[in-house]
Amino acid sequence: MTAFNLDAVTATPGPDLLSPDNAMMLFVDHQPQMFFGAGSADRASVINATTGLAKAARVFDVPMVLSTVAAESFSGPILPQLRAVFPDAPVVDRTSMNAWEDEALVEAVKATGRRKIILSGLWTEVCLVMPALSALSQGYEVYVVADASAGVTPEAHEHAMQRMTAAGAAPVTWLQVLLELQRDWAREETYAATLDVVKEHGGAYGIGVVYAHAMIDPHAAG
Known about the structure:
The chain is an alpha/beta fold. It has helices spanning 32-37, 43-59, 71-75, 80-85, 103-111, 124-137, 154-167, 174-182, 188-201, 203-215; strands at 23-28, 64-69, 91-94, 116-121, 141-145, 170-172. It is built from ten helices and six strands, in the order βααβααβαβαβαβααα.
């Protein structure tokens, strides 16, 4: 254990925090057939979280990789709401359930130059566990977005989250990721766009921001 040195304490962020400069996002198998079998959470909520997460990537220009499995033969196209955020982005379609066994996908992740992977997808116990454990074993840091992901049952999702966490992955939520990327309300270049995402996808928090801007101060922080 590193000795505590009070003189070394400074007002700086820790290395585990996500930032627009150190992270990338990997969206895995947000597809109709996978949603049909997802039973661990309300599907509309998962779609909302996934879309909010994607918009966070767009606001902060975080590199991302989109991937599907058997899109033409079984699982169907990528989630339309996700595609709408990234209309021109390539989609890596695979045959492997473990995305990390697809060479094109791994090369796309490597091309971002980022070590922190913000991971989401369906199903948690299959298409997230396997790439998460694989990436962790090769030195990546993995942040699993729990509410932008879902499993076949609540137990399957929870056990998969526990397995990934035990292996070193960090469980997060989409809103947590958005606010961690913003981190300081004084960052004016992304302030308005961040709150736009909150108002569109942040539920009660988003309604609260609408109220604050209308009734208190149009520049009220989140």
